[in-house]
């Protein structure tokens, strides 16, 4: 077997593993209330998929001799890897089974799209065209995809927030001024996860969940935003070094700017206005769609500097 | 009047409105193709059947949707955005920073209940709490029985630097558009050129009277016959035509001299040269019958003069061969360089005349823009750092402790827990 076959084989395995872990996560969420061995299996299988993806990307890097982000297929694999990594991190931090149940299907879709719809010709790594032969490729593309990954993750949490709260206005501050000393609040929060919840505590647990979703989405978007900034700027510097203008209103650039503006609005609403909960979650949820237009939608137009051979 | 206008511009809602408006307008430019000829718009957006029921070519031209990013209203929006950025920085951010730098002790205990996290401790060790706070990296200020601690002030300054770097970038763009220029030169190899075919220039830009020579142009290919790289060998000339500097440029590696950038951007083929037995050179001009995007050139060699009979020579690369077809389009074979073609008289394929497409530009705004870029990158990262404050007031046997943070709520909650939990161990 040559490298190409091994990579293809592994990439199909990743798809299978993700499908498996999605089913596990959903069963776990729908039918089992407490933390069971199933969630462990889910986490182990996604970690496995993550390792496989890492291996595929590394082997492509070694075999082709350049950073493996030169075509759509590779960037999709990389995005899947980033999404899985951030999700695994957030899951270990929050212990929430919900996030996995939402993110794993998304990664499954991306990996399915990469493996099943793209032709084998497009999956092959081909020599870099002159315009891409630069060290800026590594910085620009990896930063852009890193930001896509983190921002998708953060905006997914926003959407999740909207779904769980039932699109109602919820005052997240209510239980912070409660008479209970803080450490008790924290203790009870963790206990609700272990003990079978009574209705009162589950309402309280839901509140805590919403709060943590709200804050986590904020933190993750807050991290994705600098990445997006660095990605756009490195693209600008590269463009200036390669063909003499740092900004040319190419559709991809414009949509990256729109994404940047949307998330800048989100951050301003949070920091300066002190908004939280539903209002900012709507903005974040909007960002989710904007990212996808920026990442894939623009390529349907099939023009501009960033049309990396999809519909051509 | 002036004050209220300034306040409006510095208002966050106003700037967010402008931001979203700019986003919306930019979307138009990605849907409608930009900078096309009027005929293209007439073809794609007919009067009789407008897109979405409103977009017909006359409206597109009227509103300037064919060049959204250069219309006065789009530039005006960006101008408004810039004003709002400047005013917001000076009227709101800087004053708030001054307040943040001041030590603010809580003198009374009733402000504690308003904080995100607060607790009242009865059984405590004051020194232990202070040392825990110190271990967490807080700067601590004490005044009698009052304590004020903060950390991550840089996270508070970060957003201000973000704004200033945006202002830097915007002013760099303005300078660049006023003093810069951009030119495109198609130069046959071995020939001299001056900067003359100007694509865009600013109101105050000075086009330097400099000349240069293209010594050579070549393309390297990969094993799969795809283009690996384009190269142009360029010499800069002084007033007397003597070479001053020389460099080989390629895509991604321009030549920079005295603020003038020479980029490799395009290429073209001009003619084929043959030698007959008498060593006379016969030149056949190449034409590109398709759109300029497609790199295919051909020439016609007629059997006798004014005859319909002959062969077609076709090239789509610079690898040193051309393909021969007869007049009904049948492929006859490839003709390599230095190979002799027996046609009328035997002639030897001796040369492909090519030209290189160079872009020449200056942009005096670049230093400003790059420094803006640099600060923007650093400051958005710094802005991620969370700014936390903790207040403590000791009153008789009670200790009031409270704190707020602007970003990492849960991390802070845990941190806060540490401050007060230790006392229960």
From TrEMBL, chain A:
GO terms for molecular function: heme binding. InterPro entries: Cyt_c_assembly, Cyt_c_biogenesis_CcsA, Cyt_c_biogenesis_CcsA/CcmC. Residues 69-306 form the Cytochrome c assembly protein domain. One of its GO terms (cellular component) is thylakoid membrane. Keywords: Cytochrome c-type biogenesis, Membrane, Plastid, Thylakoid, Transmembrane, Transmembrane helix. May interact with Ccs1. Required during biogenesis of c-type cytochromes (cytochrome c6 and cytochrome f) at the step of heme attachment. Belongs to the CcmF/CycK/Ccl1/NrfE/CcsA family. This is Cytochrome c biogenesis protein CcsA. It comes from Nitzschia inconspicua. The lineage of its organism: Eukaryota, Sar, Stramenopiles, Ochrophyta, Bacillariophyta.
TrEMBL record, chain B:
One of its GO terms (cellular component) is thylakoid membrane. The keyword ATP-binding does not apply. It comes from the Eukaryota. Keywords: Cytochrome c-type biogenesis, Membrane, Plastid, Thylakoid, Transmembrane, Transmembrane helix. It is a multi-pass membrane protein. Residues 12-277, 352-416 form the ResB-like domain. It is found in: Cellular thylakoid membrane; Membrane. InterPro entries: Cyt_c_bgen_Ccs1/CcsB/ResB (IPR023494), ResB-like_domain (IPR007816). Pfam families: ResB. The keyword Transmembrane applies. GO terms for biological process: cytochrome complex assembly. HAMAP family: CytC_Ccs1. May interact with CcsA. Belongs to the Ccs1/CcsB family. This is Cytochrome c biogenesis protein CcsB. It comes from Nitzschia inconspicua.
């Amino acid at each position: 077997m040559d490298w190409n076959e091994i990579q293809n084989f592994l990439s199909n395995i990743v798809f299978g593993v993700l499908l498996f872990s999605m089913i596990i996560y959903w069963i776990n969420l729908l039918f089992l209330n407490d933390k069971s061995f199933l969630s462990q299996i889910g986490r182990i299988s996604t970690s496995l998929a993550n390792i496989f993806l890492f291996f595929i990307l590394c082997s492509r890097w070694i075999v082709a001799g350049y950073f493996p982000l030169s075509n759509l297929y590779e960037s999709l694999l990389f995005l899947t890897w980033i999404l899985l990594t951030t999700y695994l991190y957030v899951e270990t931090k929050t212990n929430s089974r919900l996030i996995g149940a939402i993110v794993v299907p998304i990664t499954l879709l991306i990996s399915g799209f990469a493996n099943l719809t793209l032709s084998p010709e497009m999956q092959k790594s081909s020599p870099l065209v002159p315009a891409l032969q630069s060290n800026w490729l590594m910085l620009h593309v990896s930063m852009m995809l890193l930001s896509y990954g983190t921002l998708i993750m953060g905006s997914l949490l926003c959407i999740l927030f909207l779904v769980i709260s039932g699109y109602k206005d919820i005052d997240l501050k209510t239980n912070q001024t409660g008479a209970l000393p803080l450490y008790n609040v924290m203790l009870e929060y963790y206990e609700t996860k272990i003990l079978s919840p009574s209705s009162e505590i589950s309402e309280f647990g839901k509140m805590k969940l919403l709060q943590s979703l709200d804050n986590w989405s904020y933190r993750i978007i807050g991290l994705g935003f600098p990445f997006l900034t660095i990605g756009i700027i490195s693209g600008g510097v590269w463009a200036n070094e390669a063909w003499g203008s740092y900004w040319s209103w190419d559709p991809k650039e414009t949509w990256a700017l729109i994404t940047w503006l949307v998330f800048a609005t989100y951050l301003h609403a949070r920091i300066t206005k002190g908004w939280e909960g539903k209002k900012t979650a709507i903005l974040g949820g909007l960002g989710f769609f904007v990212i996808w237009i920026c990442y894939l939608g623009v390529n349907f137009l099939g023009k501009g500097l960033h049309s990396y051979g999809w519909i051509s | 009047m002036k004050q209220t206008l300034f306040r409006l511009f510095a208002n966050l809602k106003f700037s967010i409105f402008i931001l979203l408006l700019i986003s919306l307008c930019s979307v138009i430019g990605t849907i409608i193709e930009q900078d096309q000829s009027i005929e293209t718009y007439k073809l794609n957006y007919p009067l009789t059947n407008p897109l979405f029921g409103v977009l017909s070519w006359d409206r597109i031209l009227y509103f300037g949707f064919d060049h959204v990013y250069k219309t006065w209203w789009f530039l005006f929006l960006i101008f408004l955005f810039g004003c709002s950025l400047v005013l917001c920085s000076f009227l709101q951010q800087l004053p708030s920073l001054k307040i943040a730098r001041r030590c603010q002790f809580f003198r009374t205990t009733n402000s504690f209940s308003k904080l995100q996290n607060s607790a009242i401790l009865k059984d405590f060790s004051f020194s232990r709490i202070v040392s825990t706070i110190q271990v967490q990296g807080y700067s601590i200020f004490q005044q009698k029985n009052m304590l004020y601690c903060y950390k991550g002030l840089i996270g508070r300054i970060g957003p201000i630097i973000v704004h200033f770097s945006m202002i830097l970038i915007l002013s760099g763009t303005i300078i660049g558009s006023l003093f810069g220029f951009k030119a495109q030169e198609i130069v046959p190899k071995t020939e001299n050129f001056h900067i003359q075919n100007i694509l865009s220039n600013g109101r105050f830009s000075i086009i330097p009277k400099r000349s240069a020579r293209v010594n050579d142009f070549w393309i390297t290919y990969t094993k799969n016959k795809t283009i690996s790289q384009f190269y142009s060998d360029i010499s800069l000339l002084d007033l007397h035509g003597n070479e001053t500097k020389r460099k080989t440029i390629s895509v991604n590696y321009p030549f920079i001299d005295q603020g003038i950038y020479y980029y490799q951007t395009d290429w073209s083929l001009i003619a084929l040269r043959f030698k007959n037995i008498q060593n006379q050179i016969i030149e056949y001009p190449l034409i590109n019958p398709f759109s300029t995007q497609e790199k295919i050139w051909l020439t016609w060699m007629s059997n006798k003069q004014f005859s319909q009979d002959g062969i077609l020579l076709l090239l789509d690369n610079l690898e040193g061969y051309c393909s021969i077809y007869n007049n009904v389009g049948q492929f006859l074979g490839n003709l390599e360089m230095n190979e002799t073609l027996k046609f009328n008289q035997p002639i030897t394929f001796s040369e492909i005349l090519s030209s290189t497409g160079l872009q020449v530009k200056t942009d005096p705004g670049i230093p400003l823009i790059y420094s803006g870029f640099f600060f923007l990158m650093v400051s958005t990262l710094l802005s991620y750092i969370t700014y936390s404050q903790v207040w403590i007031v000791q009153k008789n046997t009670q200790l009031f402790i409270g704190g707020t943070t602007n970003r990492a709520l849960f991390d802070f909650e845990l941190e806060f827990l540490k401050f007060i939990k230790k006392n229960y161990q």
